[in-house]
Amino acid sequence: MDETIALRAADLPEDATCLIVDDDQPFRTRLGRAMEKRGFSPILAESVSEATRLIAAAPPAFAVVDLRLEDGDGIEVVNQLHESRPDARAIILTGYGNITTAVAAVKAGAIDYLAKPADADDVLKSLLAGPGEMPEPPENPMSADRVRWEHIQRVYELCNHNVSETARRLGMHRRTLQRILAKRAPI
């Protein structure tokens, strides 16, 4: 953790509760531990319904929310959070970044929109950025190959795992798409 982050973490507000909503249990737990080391009091949830219940009981000051959850999307959580606590600072995490969802996240009140896998220091920078202040760009952004792979996976998912329909929408040969889908995600 660099000195700037350490100084900012020391200047956390008195209420440093941070709701972390992600259906990927290992990622959620890792991020929770990392945020706790940085001075936050993490509250973990795996679904929109669980997050909504936690927000109703005690709205947190901060939130880190995955965009796509099994029972809905993270924008619902951000909306609920801002209804309960207008001063809360929330960011959206997603493996499927696109302009439409980024705009929707900002309209819902998210202060930033980060691509997964997001580093805990990048999350901290975004949560603690001052009003109108842009956080520094991430140290390890996704590679162009990873962004392409994520986009293909997203379209494939939206096409209900139909290879022919996905290939048609992406304008690529079906066999090329099958080879890409058979490979592991690039780093």
From TrEMBL:
Keyword Membrane: no
SUPFAM superfamilies registered for this protein in UniProt: CheY-like
A Pfam cross-reference name: HTH_8
Residue span(s) of domain Response regulatory: 17-131
One annotated Gene Ontology cellular component of this protein: protein-DNA complex
List of residues that carry 4-aspartylphosphate: 66
PROSITE patterns: RESPONSE_REGULATORY
InterPro entries xref list: ActR_PrrA_rreg (IPR047772), CheY-like_superfamily (IPR011006), HTH_Fis (IPR002197), Sig_transdc_resp-reg_receiver (IPR001789), WalR-like (IPR039420)
UniProt KW keywords: DNA-binding, Phosphoprotein, Transcription, Transcription regulation, Two-component regulatory system
MF terms (GO), sorted A to Z: phosphorelay response regulator activity; transcription cis-regulatory region binding
GO BP annotations, alphabetical order: regulation of DNA-templated transcription
PANTHER family associated with the record: REGULATOR OF RPOS, TWO-COMPONENT RESPONSE REGULATOR ORR33
Name the record gives this protein: DNA-binding response regulator
